[in-house]
Fold this protein.
Amino acid sequence: MSSIESTDVVVIGSGFGGAIPAYHLAAGGARVVVLERGPHLSGEEFEHDFKLGSSYTRVFDFVVGDGMSVLGGNCVGGGSVVYFATMPRAPGFVFERHGSIGRRMWPASITRDVLDPWYDRVSEALPVSMQTWDKVPYAGGLFAAACAHAGHTANPSPAAVDVERCTNCNWMMAGCRFDAKRSLLLNYLPAAVAHGAEVRPLHEVQHLTRNDDGGYRVHFRVVDDSDYRILHDAGTIDAKVVIVAAGAGATPVILQRSADTLGAMPHATGRYFSGNGERLNTAVFDEDRVREVLGLTRGDGQAYAANQIGRGPTVASWDRLDGTLPEFERFSLEQLYFPPGLGTILAQTPDDGDPRWFGVEKKEMLRRWQSWLTIFTMSEDDNEGVFGPPPETGNAHRFSQQMLGHGPLRYRPTANTWRGWNLADAAVKDILERDGLAKVAPWTNDLVGAYTVHPLASCRIGDDPETSALDDRHELRGHPGIFVTDGSAVPGALTVNPALTIAALAERAVAGIVRTAQERGVAVTYIGDLPEGTSSSLRAVAVGA
Amino acid sequence: METEAQNQDPARVATLEAFADTIVPGEKRSPDDRAVAGVAAGGGAVASGALQLLEEPAGGISEALDALVLGLNDHATEYAEAHGVALDDGVPAFVSLPYEHRAALVQQLTTPGHPEKQVWVGLALFSNMAFDSASHLGTAEAFAAGHPGLLTIGFQPPGEDGLNRFPDYSYGRPLADLHPDTTATGSPA
């Protein structure tokens, strides 16, 4: 009989929720193994190519659910490799939200003020930097000018991008070829490995079982390198502590599947999913009106025609992030880029009539693709997503060899969610159609449901055991030694891009995880240094703050 | 860009082409082209290689195509009966439908609540991807071959090293007032 591999801590997933605890635990002396479902790509492996099988289709997943589809990372570095690196902090009112549960959704111990020192740390480690107008790409500039024309403010969003290295190629979703995007491949993950952590790509965790010593056995399958529909060997690793950070579309599925052996999961596991209130509108600009009304011209004489140029979202309007407004009526609007393919099929022609997402008029709209501007709404949805029974393996029935699958998430937007979306649609229309600048229409929800790139809250922290699967230390209720530190843990929609908040919560959770690991006999201390290469000015955040 | 498909059952090919052409229509390849309805100028999904992409095993839809062809023509026959549209026996039922009826049928099949919605949306998604992202080809290769879809949308081709770079990218000046509550870190308060 072969010996069972064991370690101190297994981390499932290598995005923000996984890489940050992996780094701190390894730095503190724990033996750490990170199991990542996707491949390990970096630098020159990131291609500018739409071909099936290129990095573009290998590093992210698009999981179609019933009423909601989720786009997420599927690679070492997780979401940080495929995201657009827009890193605002969540506005203070978000932490006071009640949603529909009649009480504060967030734990009493967490407010914006409490989280600010943790935001500071992540901002330094990645790093995140303020952006300046002189480096804002055309699309962000166009949105800013349209906002100003309509009497609104607009801000260049803080970003984890080294603008000096950036070529504004807009291929960020395929991984950054130029190492300009400050993904986890450049900070927390190499630092974790330098401290002895092992990162194992193409290891998809299926479920957990409990050992007699109170630790856990993590059961995985090895995923084929090129055809993710094919699973190879099965294996196990024992650990005293398990950190589940597979992303909000996968973490609850692993836990649900584990209920057969671990016992019942908390009621909120796989419930209260939020799509971060996300919705998209596409505008097609009249180039002449851009020049005449907004006075914009590029060096080459064109007014805009620059949809392809840039680095994802760079400018946002925060006028509706007003804590005095009623809940479900607050949202931010952000200029965004989506590549062709997934970014065009759902866009609708602005004029009424059928069909609006395909056909003759849609093709005419596609001819003007370089004059498109996509506006991203992040609002307050109602945490109405629920995961059904888990698929046989993974978090989806994989349809294509990479990227496309069907998952068990069901989402039926409530009237509250629609209130925010309708207000945001109207605001976008008012800003962009003013004086004939553009014609605008929201993306259709008819094909793949609503669409989120920021899945949240499917296994969330909170004070109320009925509506939160985790306590405020991110420990899974009723299953000591299991922690969840990814977007699943965020209680609800944030009205802004969530990556910095997910990362800050993970930073905050580490000290508590270390204490539990110590109680379980792991020789580990919480040092709290940031990955090498960042300054040490933020080392002194009080443990447990 | 249609080599492999040409060797297959002509009715199967025509049906799939007619579906792809409904999603992103193009001009007829010849006066007697039945599959392509010819309702839009320039190449559409068919000329962009939609059949090649659909036949890619990596896409996951290739094994279902035979069943989809049968299903689509059954739906087209029912549709024609329900709407009093005369069909031409010489071609598959879906191919026989005029464009506006093909579009109306696709609209029905992809409407929320239709039991087969998922597969028809998948077929539409791949048809669209063939046109605007040439996912069956390398992007550089697609440009070299004069891919109609990428050229129609005006996608800027990669440079000689296969990479896009845009050295001119900014209007270079402030274009709006900042939100008054912006914090020192550049975030909302």
